[in-house]
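Before a computer can learn anything about folding, someone has to put a protein's shape into writing. The three-dimensional part falls to structure tokens, numbers that each stand for a local backbone shape. The protein below has been through that process, and both of its lines are reproduced in full.
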Amino acid sequence: MQAAKPLFDYPKYWAECFGPAPFLPMSREEMDQLGWDSCDIIIVTGDAYVDHPSFGMAIIGRLLEAQGFRVGIISQPDWRSKDDFMKLGEPNLFFGVAAGNMDSMINRYTADKKIRSDDAYTPGGLAGKRPDRASLVYSQRCKEAYSHVPVILGGIEASLRRIAHYDYWQDKVRRSILMDATADILLYGNAERAVVEVAQRLSRGESIESISDVRGTAFIRRDTPQGWFEVDSTRIDRPGRVDKIINPYVNTQDTEACAIEQGKGGEVEDPNEAKVVQILESPRMTRDKTVIRLPSFEKVRNDPVLYAHANRVLHLETNPGNARALVQRHGEVDVWFNPPPIPMSTEEMDYVFGMPYARVPHPAYGGERIPAYEMIRFSVNIMRGCFGGCTFCSITEHEGRIIQNRSHDSIIREIEEMRDKVPGFTGVVSDLGGPTANMYRIACKDPEIERHCRKPSCVFPGICENLNTDHSSLIELYRKARALPGVKKILIASGLRYDLAVESPEYVKELVTHHVGGYLKIAPEHTERGPLDKMMKPGIGSYDRFKQMFEKFSKEAGKEQYLIPYFIAAHPGTTDEDMMNLALWLKRNGFRADQVQAFYPSPMATATAMYHSGKNPLRKVTYKSDGVEIVKSEQQRRLHKAFLRYHDPKGWPLLREALQRMGRADLIGPAKHQLIPATQPVGDGSYQSARRKNSTPVGSKKAGAGGKILTQHNGLPPRGSDGAKPWDKREQAKAAAFAKMQEQKKGGKASGGGKKKPRPVAPR
């Protein structure tokens, strides 16, 4: 992997003399107080401005400030006119535009396309403070305000919509967001490197049009520049006579390579088999001067198989060590995608997270509650990236699969700063995590293997033999953190990769003994092999192994703790029989789901390509390749959710009809092995209790993992990453109540009079 210029090695811009601002200004009055006559860069964001490193605008703003630039923030502007976009004046260099920490459509609509009643990234949790497709609207308003000022798109919405993508809300393939926005360039992924490079070059007088060589950027151009080899991504046979196929990855203008390819022997082609030709390269072709041409927007819009193929190629070109540039035609122009950015080093991660963040919302909000901030207020992000490759998730597409780690010292300093400066700190750190809880400092054993690897996941179908699963550094970090004066408890709230955790029993013991706040969330997502393979998730056996360890170490610690598993309904590859088997598993294990999450097709995700095309991009895509079971109709989605909530009488009529149709009427009745009763209850059919029947605390004679399934997982980046969606506020209340109950029990005295102690139950 090529070396990248360190973020802290750039010369500072002249405005460095102003020093860091207490908060990046949101008004002209604040600019006057700072002595600024203008802003060099203005960031427009769909989120409330919270000066905390879990919020994208704060990280990018503080990083640019550290480079010497004067950075202003326009947060949640009134998009109905250009006026709000002019309130800080004209920026000297550029507007940076982002929809916020979430895709604006996912932020506003549920998986059932219903409008959400709140917005966690808005003061007071109010909905409606940002437009649909906010990146488009904001960039257009910026150009209306100052037409000659460059507009740079960033954030997760732009990142996941940089290519022709299936849009769930319109049920069609939309073109690259760059074609619909009035932006000049797009920065995808974690854009620290790209934004610093672009800002520095603009400050030196370069035009935005001339900046076309920065990794992690996308832009529009009319042709392939001289000196580049352009290769086609695919050539799909049609039924009938088949001639020898020339490798589409050989440039037809390269006569030497063409001659070599045509002279190759090989097996006789089957005329009845349509196939995608594999990638081969001419010795004269180098990766840094090779661009892969994807099927055009017009082709993928009209041909779902080509869409699935393009999605597959895109995901194969995500490793920064070997990725090539991509290009996709849109009408008369090309959208060009440079290779992904080089991951940040530990020193650079420390630099980014060591900026002078105030760690609180901007004073302009007057102390009004911002739900997303409340969730991350006392948490610390220790790493970035995920090599899990779950097909429904957007983390890998945005943050990459190579883990970027902070040092112990940097993390400890942030905890101390939080302890000393953040109002309301009680000694409890709510999370040390990131996209996952336990990928910290886990990586490929050999950097050379990592550089050449093209696998979409390091842990599917099993853990790669080249992956170092050592959790010792994370264990050491936990011990250092909880030994800090003034720190009473360190909780781990980020999602746990339990198939990795079981490789380190010492880690599981450390976690269960010291860092579980009554219950621990994990995400098996399903029990059946069909949907799990389409998700790229481990089998339920890994969950069982972890559950045994969890119960064992909880008992040894003398603690009553519960596992809370998450499951997804209606994921591609899921049949009605799969959901029935999952429901039977839930009943056998005593789980009753409170909230159920249906599959949400987010832009660019591999599972979304399955949903749209009915094909599986995890394998070679052809017109004749096996299809994927897709759940699209509202009726079937309702059925799959009803299976997850098998205990809810409201879903019983639908389940009875389905079970009879499936030939499984034997599961209807009052017996323990049966799923639902044959009759409806008297009354409105509501179900009052969501507790586990006969729940027994872990550590008792009949130990088991009880409790509800608090399924908030939606296949998107979890809290703490750029696409974060915090827990529902009701979950916070439940967790707080349960923790309070545990504390009261520990601090109280045994009751007299022979009264029986109440048995604790799973958190409600």
User: Anything to note?
Assistant: The longest strand covers residues 562-569.
